[in-house]
Write a structure and sequence with these properties.
The complex is a heterodimer. Chain A is of the alpha/beta class. Chain A has 8 helices and 10 strands. Chain A folds into 2 domains: 175 residues, 3-Layer(aba) Sandwich (Rossmann fold); 66 residues, no CATH class. A 6-stranded mixed β-sheet of chain A has the order 6-7-8-3-9-10, sandwiched between helices. Chain A has a 4-stranded antiparallel β-sheet with strand order 2-1-4-5, with helices on one face. The longest helix of chain A has 25 residues. Chain B starts with a helix and ends in a 10-residue tail after the last helix. The chains are: A alpha/beta, B mainly alpha.
Chain lengths: 262, 282
């Protein structure tokens, strides 16, 4: 039971709708784990449960052997594009987590300064989020989460709102930053190639209710660069994941279009 | 390593990332546009003066700007104008401040408690749409012709836009931001002070602008119904005496106050919400 983050026997229903069924997986220390699943796989509920703002019907989220009780600074979150506070400057956004957790001190601020440099935004301290590009905003988001020096970094489709080229650049950036501290990362995405490119392991979820369909170890050498995406091994992993979720994706599209699934 | 270094550079330079200095550029106002307003005002005044002197020629029907200036100077010399302005100003400021505080408090209650919302909702909706200046005589009957009756009239006119905007502002807080704040460990109080309230500020200003307009009208109308001093009182005196220049003194001061107040709110708005007035990049 040496896992950094252990999601154990999670069950959750909203009324008659079962959302998570016996969800089980673990993330080892320094490991980068990606979660991939079709819509309806309960990823929002899973995320809220890990965040501690949703209580599971049964099961637990365990960090370093201790079940979590509510939100805490041991988990750092990176959300989709617009979770920066628009009325705060980049710097004030960056230290938001420190501020609300009562951890504003000389050491943590110096650390935050270094993070700003790490994500390549030194000089942008006094800018407001609406003055910088989407890619830059996501760097701030990442730095804001890292500023708390969390045990686990949880990223919720952080690059989904970015255009394709910026997204690739941000994936590289993320890997570069991750290589330096090797945080334990749980990365949620819809993008299969993104998951394969970034992760050590992929958790593939099934839908309605959400459950763990398969765990796939990605055995690609690190550090990785974009050329990896053109290798046969990479393509094989993408195919493998896609085959696992293809039927689920079809079902969810059919459902969205309100055509009865075959 | 060399490769990832390069990636960093490309990453940092992607898109239209501005150099840090570029973000601080000020929006430049074109001078031609700037002078258009001034020319419009001066032209309008000249036309008015001309019409009053050469076309209508009867001060009762159309007084001229110069006559108004004349009357203003005389009134100031007599120490009268100051007295009226102080009276109306006092009523206006006390009433407005009370309306803002009350409005934010009630709006907050309605946004955060569904019973408060249900209990107060119908009253707010009804009073917001009613021209409550109409009940000024009643208020004066209750509270006398001193300043407090006017303060009450101002409050019951100005408070409703404040309530409605505060509530709407607090309710419209981006759920994603609240969720993110909760994940960072914010408690309810922190969410209110650090997320909901700042995000409601633009709404508060919108409410304040409406409240100021209503408060100005309320002061004057309430004074018309019964008072011993104030710009509304001056207005009434002048119209009883068919002294049109004097009547216009009051009107002009009200108009100018309205403009100055709106401008002032704009200034405060810029000070408090710089993120709304910074130029968008990309």
């Amino acid at each position: 039971m040496g896992a950094k983050l252990h999601v154990k026997d999670l069950h959750k229903s909203f009324g008659d709708l079962q959302v998570l069924r016996d969800m089980n997986f673990a993330v080892e220390e320094h490991e980068f784990v990606a979660i991939v699943g079709p819509s309806g796989c309960g990823k929002t509920t899973l995320l809220r449960t890990i965040a501690g703002i949703e209580t599971p019907d049964s099961g637990a989220v365990i960090i370093d052997g201790k079940p979590i009780k509510g939100p805490g600074a041991d988990r750092g979150f990176v959300f989709q594009q617009d979770s920066l506070l628009p009325w705060r400057t980049i710097w004030k956004n960056l230290v938001f987590g420190l501020e609300v957790n009562g951890r504003l001190n000389e050491a943590s601020l110096a650390e935050a300064k270094k993070l700003l440099q790490l994500v390549g935004l030194s000089g942008f301290e006094h800018f407001y989020p609406n003055q910088i590009s989407g890619g830059m905003r996501q760097r701030v988001n990442l730095a804001r989460a890292l500023a708390l020096n969390p045990e686990v970094l949880i990223m919720d489709e952080p690059f989904s709102a970015l255009d394709a080229q910026t997204r690739e650049m941000m994936q590289l950036e993320l890997l570069r930053i991750w290589q330096q501290g090797r945080k334990t990362v749980l990365f949620i995405t819809h993008q299969i190639d993104e998951a394969v490119f970034l992760a050590d392991r992929i958790v593939v979820l099934g839908r309605r209710p959400g459950w763990v369909k398969e765990l796939i170890a990605i055995d690609l050498p690190r550090p990785r660069d974009l050329a990896v995406k053109r290798t046969a091994a990479f393509g094989a992993y993408v195919d493998q994941v896609w085959n696992l979720i293809e039927n689920d994706v079809r079902a969810s599209i059919a459902e969205d279009a309100q055509i009865p699934a075959a | 390593m060399a490769k990832s270094e390069q990636a960093t550079k490309t990453g940092a330079g992607q898109g239209a990332n501005p150099a840090p200095a570029a973000g601080k550029r000020k929006p430049r106002k074109s001078s031609a546009l700037y002078w258009t307003s001034a020319a419009s005002v001066v032209g309008g005044l000249l036309l008015w003066e001309f019409a009053g002197r050469f076309i209508v020629q009867k001060a009762l029907f159309l007084t001229t700007p110069t006559q108004i200036v004349d009357a203003t100077i005389k009134l100031i010399a007599a120490g009268e104008l100051q007295r009226h302005i102080v009276a109306s100003g006092t009523e206006f400021i006390i009433g407005l401040v009370l309306a803002i505080i009350l409005g934010i408090a009630i709006g907050f209650a309605m946004a955060s408690d569904k019973y408060a919302k249900r209990a107060l909702g119908p009253w707010v909706a009804a009073f917001y749409a009613t021209p409550t200046v109409a009940i000024s005589p009643l208020i004066i009957l209750w509270a006398g012709i001193g300043i407090w009756s006017k303060v009450i009239v101002v409050v019951i006119n100005a408070v409703f836009p404040m309530i409605i905007n505060t509530e709407a502002g607090l309710r419209s807080t981006d759920k994603q931001l609240v969720e993110a704040a909760r994940c960072f460990g914010c408690n309810r109080l922190q969410i209110f002070w650090k997320v909901s309230l700042p995000s409601a500020v633009p709404f508060l200003f919108a409410g304040m602008k409406l409240a100021i307009g209503r408060a100005l009208v309320a002061v004057v109308v309430a004074e018309l119904f019964g008072s011993r001093a104030g710009l509304g009182f001056l207005l009434l005196q002048a119209s009883d005496a068919f002294n049109m220049p004097l009547l216009f003194v009051s009107v002009v001061i009200l108009a100018v106050s309205g403009m100055v107040l709106t401008w002032l709110v704009g200034v405060v708005e810029r000070l408090l919400m710089p993120w709304r007035y910074t130029s968008e990049q990309e």
